[in-house]
Structures are given as C-alpha cells and as structure tokens.
Amino acid sequence: MNLPNKITISRLFLIPIFIILLVAPLDWGSYDIGTYELPVTHLIAAIIFIVASLTDWLDGYYARKYNLVTNLGKFLDPLADKLLVSAALICLVELGMAPAWIVIIIISREFAVTGLRLVAAGDGIVLAASQMGKLKTTLQIGSAAFLLLHHFPFSYIGLPIGTILLYLAALVTVISGVDYFKKNWHVMRDSK
C-alpha cells in the first residue's frame, strides 16, 4: 500500500460524501451567481469533485516519478476515475442538470472500452489510453465541475459552459470510442 494507492483510495472514499451532498435533502442556503443560483451543497460537492479529480493526476505523478506502479494501482486508478465521473453524471441527471441520454452514451462507452481492455488483458495485451481518450476524460470532468457550480463564473454572462462542455464531451466520447475500437479491433478478432 504505497502513497499513490493511498491517494487513489482516498478518491474512492470521497465519492459517497460527494453523492450525499448532492442527493440528500440538505438546505444550507445558496448564492446568487449571475443568472443562476448555486446551493452551498453543490458548491461543496463541486470542490470535493475537483479535489478528487486532481488526485488522479497526483497519484499518477507519484507512481511514475518514484516507480511505484503496482497491479493494485493499475486496477484501482481507472476504477476510481470511472466511478467518480459516473457518480457525478448520474447525480446531475437526478438533479435535472444533465440529459440522461448523454450520460447513457458516456457510461456505455466506458463499459465497452473496459470490456475490450479485459479481453486484451486476458491475452496479455495492455491497451494504453489515447490522447483523444485523455481529452474525453478532461471534458467530462470539466463539464461535471461547471454543471455542479451552475456554470460559475460564466453564469455572470449567462453562458451555460457546463452544458456546452457536456455536449462536447459526449461528441468526443463517441469519436474516441469508435477510434479506440477501430485501432484495437484485432484484439477481439484474434482473441482465443
């Protein structure tokens, strides 16, 4: 249990706290931010989400810098990322802040790519994340963060940046998924 793995596990422990803040009937007041109102619970949940998202970069940095890459970390890190983003997007659907069809597309792509990676791993092949996949993740995290913040600070000019980023994330998610399968279809074709 090295430092990167502890950081990853801390991200997993932040997820239920984040969910409770969003879906429990807590009324801690709100702030007027331009054309929107930002509940305090959403602000705190957004801060937790952003901190948890940054731990993904931090655990990877320490694992690479100090050669602390472990099989546990290889398993937990992508799992924690997918759980955090999926939890955020599903809660946003519950709150009426994100269309369910977009979240279904995003989560379906994650299941499909994870399935392909499992087939590859069964044959001893490691499929690395692509640059487009990293862009997809960045857009998903950015859109969720801005939606949780009710588009702050863009709310002062009436720009729904979180919604715009969510649609862009969905587009890049589909494109990167198709690209990933095209480049790695040989894994499915040649699997035993």
TrEMBL record:
Membrane topology of the entry: Multi-pass membrane protein
Transferase is among the record's keywords: yes
Gene Ontology MF term list: CDP-diacylglycerol-glycerol-3-phosphate 3-phosphatidyltransferase activity
Entry-linked Gene3D superfamilies: 1.20.120.1760
Catalytic function, reaction form: a CDP-1,2-diacyl-sn-glycerol + sn-glycerol 3-phosphate = a 1,2-diacyl-sn-glycero-3-phospho-(1'-sn-glycero-3'-phosphate) + CMP + H(+)
EC identifiers of the protein: 2.7.8.5
Keyword Lipid metabolism applies: yes
InterPro entries: CDP-alcohol_PTase-I, CDP-OH_P_trans, CDP-OH_PTrfase_TM_dom, CDP_ALCOHOL_P_TRANSF_CS, Phosphatidylglycerol_P_synth
UniProt entry keywords in alphabetical sequence: Lipid biosynthesis, Lipid metabolism, Membrane, Phospholipid biosynthesis, Phospholipid metabolism, Transferase, Transmembrane, Transmembrane helix
Pathway listed: Lipid metabolism; Phospholipid metabolism; phosphatidylglycerol biosynthesis; phosphatidylglycerol from CDP-diacylglycerol: step 1/2
Membrane-crossing segments per the record: 12-31, 43-62, 83-107, 156-181
Compartments (UniProt record): Membrane
Purpose: This protein catalyzes the committed step to the synthesis of the acidic phospholipids.
Family note: Belongs to the CDP-alcohol phosphatidyltransferase class-I family.
Name this polypeptide is given: CDP-diacylglycerol--glycerol-3-phosphate 3-phosphatidyltransferase
